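Q&A log
Question type: sequence-to-structure
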Amino acid sequence: MKLEFNELPNGVRLIKLEGNLDLAGVGTVEARFYANCGGNPPRVLVDLSGTGFVASLGIRMLLQGIKTVSAAGGRLLMLNPVPAVASALDISGLSQFVVRGSEAEAAAALLQPGK
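Response status: OK
Response body:
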């Protein structure tokens, strides 16, 4: 599992995950994932377009990220999951945090007030 982090000019934190969010993948990236879910308030975009599979541990990691960011007054959205990952997110009830489109469109959605 590979994690890339960038802070966009508008203050949105972009976390790109590539690989599988299974036991080994989560173990590799979990601490860095949480460390990059900050900001004041946190605005986090998680690009899942390169993630081929998500197990229950991966769902737990994403859910914990959503809860942590929300508790700090921010938002976390997941961008462009592949169909298998989108299905797992839908089954787990996290599809409300999924956006499809460009990185710029998703970052703009994070910055909209009242969302």
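Response note: Strands lie at 2-7, 13-21, 43-54, 75-79, 98-99.
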